[in-house]
Amino acid sequence: MKKLHTTAALGGALGITLASIALGGGSAAAATGSSTTVPTAPVISTAEGNQEAAVVAAEDRRLIELRAVTSTSQAKASSGQSPYRVETGSTYTLVLTPQTAPYTLDDLLELEPETLVLQPDGSYLLSEDIYVERGATLDLATTTGLTLKMQSDAEGFASIVSYGGDIIVTGTAAKPVNIESWNPQVQAPQTDLTNGRSYIREVGGQLRLSYVDASNLGFWSGDTGGIAMTGTNRPSAGSTTYSGTVSNSTTLNSNQVTTSPVGSTSGSSSEFYVPGMSYVSAKIDHTNISDDAFGLYFSTAQGVAISDSAVTGSLVEGIDLHRLTTEVEIQDVSSNQNDGPGFDISRAAQQVQILDCTADYNLGNGYTVNGQPISQGASASGESLGSYGNNSIGSSTAQGNSHYGIEVQGGLNITLEKNTIIGNQMGIVVTKATDTVTIFENDLEKQDREGISLIDGVTKAAVTDNWIQGAATGIYVRDSVVELERNTVSGASLHAITLLGSDTGSVIGHNTLGGAGVSPLETDRVTGKITLGTEDTAGWDDTVPLLRRLEAVIRPLTLIWLGIFTVLIVAAYRNWRTRNGKGKRHLRRRAELAPGRHPYTNQFMMAIAPPMTLDEVLAESARKMDAARAVTAERLARRAKPAAEPAVKPAPAVAVTPAPVVPAQQTRDKQRAAFESAKPVTTAEPVKTPTPVKTPAPEPMRAQGPVWTPPTRSPEPTAAATTSTASAPAPESAMLETTVLPVVLDKEPAHEAPETLVLAGGLGELREESEDSLDFPTFGEISGGTGRRRARPSLPDSAEAEERQW
């Protein structure tokens, strides 16, 4: 501890303390309470963590220096085997040297009157570190009650460390011993761990606690976690003893060593006894520990007994059985509301037995059992590759923990029996290739997910006679080999038992499965051989909706095969109806399929419209051009009228009215006169409409686009002829069956640009394009037709030759 002698004395003189704190407290027991809430993990910044780690390293350095000094003969000679004080830096440590009688509270008051000060309320404030050597015992037993406050503040903290010695702290049920950290500046227990906090540690010796209430001790690491019991894998300094002189021929035991002078190997030698590992042992009963960093921490301990005690509100873990801790018995101990697991059996801890204990409302698991090998191969420390085990948890309770009730991570020979596990995320979880685990007669209720889960390579697991109620899945097995027999599952909402993954011999039988969900036993996703017995599923209510059932059955490949079978069935049915039906359709079909009838009798070539002669083509073209001129003249007349005058409805038969003479019209007249002067003069005759030829052929092909057709070479018809033509148009049926062929001139006039007429099929769009860009109506507007286009028919060779010659 820092040099706080003056502060402690001043505190004792002025009596700066809380008078309400009575001797014999029991405050820790009151603090345990019966709360049913899970604590919130403390938030520690990186800077705070680094600072606490630095304080731990400084403590380790201080203890190394103390061991080095106390092991030298000069230090022992200078002290005369009496207690002495060591100053390391700014820290004072009282060293209790070996002696026959134990050191009591009165001895401490005599040895350190300035650093162990009586307070006005009857408590004692310790402001100096105490170091107990091997062979020495610190005994703080009392029947009148004792409150020891270990000073902790920004300047430092006091600690009690025994290196090979013994620490005994005992009280009575009525007058327990209270030990806590204390900050004199705020007159309250120390809760700021940044600069460290007081702790008690037993290294390689024995610790005895009975009727003790300890609170607010420890920080950061297990060694400085609060109440820590740690051993070493090396002999303790000063523990070697001289056994006398023996003959060189004497057989030595494993811990015996002899020395002899050089020269001949015969004769006598000096014998020494060197102990093996320096284990720590502890016996703790009727002790309440609250708000420590680690409630109880054990490492390299052998022979630990804890009973009738409680650990509450630890910042890391409740009870931590760390590496190489063996032969541990924990009975009637509760570890509740810790920020980690209630009980943690770490790697290399074995032969641990937990009976009648309670782990409720912890932030981690209720119980954690880790039996995995320390190393998976060659390592710097050369650890064994074997698993650890022979651990058991029985007749214990795990309720309301935020993770699992009991989690087993590897190991061998694990037994979990007659435990009560209520309201955890999952009840019992066994994983990571655990070998030989027995889960027997456990009562599991109201787990969020699975009641019992065995996953990831568990072998030789026996799950029998368990009662599981209210879990989504009662028992869940994945990639493991288990024996599931005589279990009772009720209230499951998904499956009572689920097996999936690789399995090489699981046995399931004689289970009672109740609940309401998808199925009581799911084994569809198992690969391997399993043995299924008789299950009682009378209490199971299948609640799978029809849609879910269909989804389970209907798959893409299933639909494909269903479609194929449907087609085959329909085809077979139609064939049967065709051969056996009585209707006309069936009789006609049988006649078509009668023997001797050609299968393609009803197939025939498409009919082609008869070809038109050249005169017929020219006559049809002239008729269409006259009709187009009439419509154009009508449109021009409508444009010349005032806008207010209503439009004139087109009549079915329109007489051609000469259009006003405009420059564009004069140009067309000149072109037409020049064009007509190049052909012989003929007498105008009425246009003969060809009689359409009706054929049963399907609808002719549509024209592929507009074609250009020059004006007819026949003379301009007279007004009477035009009127007759316009008033008596050809029947629509004739127009529908007639196709206008394009007529190509050998050469065009060399003067002004000729008119261009576009005829788009038989009943298609007829448009005249010229330099004044007049809009012409479609042929459907002229004749009232539907505007359908007909394919261009093929002409005989003689007609094509005549056309080219013309």
Characterize the structure shown.
The structure is a single chain. The protein has 806 residues and is of the alpha/beta class. The chain is built from 14 helices and 49 strands. The strands form 5 sheets. The chain has a 19-stranded mixed sheet that branches. A 16-stranded mixed sheet has the order 1-2-5-9-12-14-19-21-23-26-29-32-35-38-41-44, covered by helices on one side. An 8-stranded parallel sheet has the order 25-28-31-34-37-40-43-46, with no helix packed on it. Helix 7 packs across helix 8 (584-592). The longest helix has 27 residues, at 614-640. It is elongated, with a radius of gyration of 55 Å. The model is unreliable at 2-33, 697-709 and 716-795 (pLDDT under 50).
